[in-house]
């Protein structure tokens, strides 16, 4: 199976990013791509959905499996291919944008071509959404194509880590797995060491790894979970006082709850409730 659509190159377009092609391929054991240096003038992002394949770079062969990804800059030499016995299923997008090279280099994405995704299914969904839009509307709605491509890029940079199958990668998965539990327990007093002990690591390493996985500190994650719950309760429980809601989400002090809410939402809990219930 192979679905692929090519789009015309938009010169001097106003968008941060724009796709040139997007596709989805499976059951193709002979899938093999060799591109010479300076051949492809666009970024190339692939995600492995199932099966197995390989990428060769600087004399090293990397084995790629479900949840792994590879990312080429424009004009780079490219060599990748499917495993013959367990052919990969892949989705991909080629895209461009005037500011993208500087953007990706500042974030260090030029340092390696192979990556792994802490949560790959959302990236897969985003690429499929882009593929379906391109198939249905082609170039009719370029702003939509750009927005969907931006969604792909955002999800990739949020979840991608340099490819490694060591303890560090396993820890990323374990942190991702405990996020729902942390959210459910967010109204209780937050004890950093308890969560670090849960993963059998130091509190320092827990904080460092947590930020790499989520982009925020554990305490900020708990704060955002509490605020999200508070906003729901402000609207779902109009008969509850602000003090009741503060206590319910984990803030015994109503004044502290108000200051945290105001700092993050730029309005007080009462103002938020009045605005959305009016």
State the domain count: 2
Largest sheet: 7 strands, antiparallel
**Straight-line distance between termini:** 52 Å
- Work out the helix count: 10
Number of DSSP strand runs: 11
* Average residue pLDDT: 92
Query: Under the CATH scheme, which architecture of the largest domain would be assigned?
Result: Sandwich
Radius of gyration, Cα only, in angstroms?
Answer: 23 Å
* Element-level helix/strand string: EEEEEEEEEHEHHEHHHHHHH
Shape: globular
Q: Looking across the biggest beta sheet, what order are the strands in? A: 1-2-9-4-7-10-11
CATH class of the largest domain: Mainly Beta
How helix-rich are the residues, as a percent range? Answer: 40-55%
Task: Note poorly predicted spans.
Answer: none
Q: Determine the CATH superfamily of the largest domain.
A: Regulatory protein AraC
Q: Helix/strand/pairing class, anyone?
A: alpha+beta
According to CATH, the fold-level topology of the largest domain is Jelly Rolls
Percent in strands: 15-25%
Q: Can I get a quick summary?
A:
The protein has 278 residues and is α+β, with helices and mostly antiparallel strands. The chain is built from 10 helices and 11 strands.
Structure description:
The chain is globular and about 65 Å long. The longest helix has 19 residues. By secondary structure, it is α+β, with helices and mostly antiparallel strands. It starts with a strand and ends with a helix. Helix 7 runs antiparallel to helix 8. It has a seven-stranded antiparallel sheet with strand order 1-2-9-4-7-10-11, with helices on one face. A four-stranded antiparallel sheet has the order 3-8-5-6, with no helix packed on it. The model has no long low-confidence stretch (mean pLDDT about 90). It has two domains: about 160 residues, Sandwich (Jelly Rolls), CATH 2.60.120.280; about 110 residues, Arc Repressor Mutant, subunit A (Orthogonal Bundle), CATH 1.10.10.60. Helices cover about 45% and strands about 20% of the residues.
């Amino acid at each position: 199976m192979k679905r692929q659509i090519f789009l015309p190159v938009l010169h001097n377009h106003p968008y941060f990013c724009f796709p040139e092609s997007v596709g989805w391929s499976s059951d193709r054991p002979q899938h093999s791509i060799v591109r010479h240096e300076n051949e492809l003038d666009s970024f190339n992002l692939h995600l492995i959905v199932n099966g197995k394949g390989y990428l060769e770079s600087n004399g090293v062969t990397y084995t790629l499996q479900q949840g792994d990804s590879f990312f080429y800059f424009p004009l780079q030499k490219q060599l990748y291919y499917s495993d013959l016995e367990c052919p990969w299923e892949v989705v991909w997008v080629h895209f461009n944008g005037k500011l993208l090279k500087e953007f990706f280099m500042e974030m260090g994405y030029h340092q390696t071509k192979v990556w792994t995704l802490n949560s790959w299914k959302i990236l897969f969904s985003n690429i499929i959404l882009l593929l379906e839009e391109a198939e249905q509307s082609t170039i009719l709605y370029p702003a939509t194509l750009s927005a969907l491509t931006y969604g792909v890029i955002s999800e990739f940079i949020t979840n991608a880590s340099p490819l490694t199958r060591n303890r560090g990668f396993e820890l990323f998965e374990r942190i991702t797995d405990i996020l729902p539990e942390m959210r459910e327990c967010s109204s209780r007093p937050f004890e950093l060491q308890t969560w670090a002990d849960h993963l059998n690591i130091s509190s320092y390493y827990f904080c460092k790894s947590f930020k790499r996985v989520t982009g925020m500190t554990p305490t900020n994650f708990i704060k955002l979970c509490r605020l999200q719950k508070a906003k729901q309760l402000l609207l779902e429980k109009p008969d509850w006082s602000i003090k009741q809601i503060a206590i319910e989400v984990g803030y015994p002090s109503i004044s502290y709850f108000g200051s945290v809410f105001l700092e993050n939402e730029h309005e007080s809990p009462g103002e938020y409730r009045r605005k959305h219930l009016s």
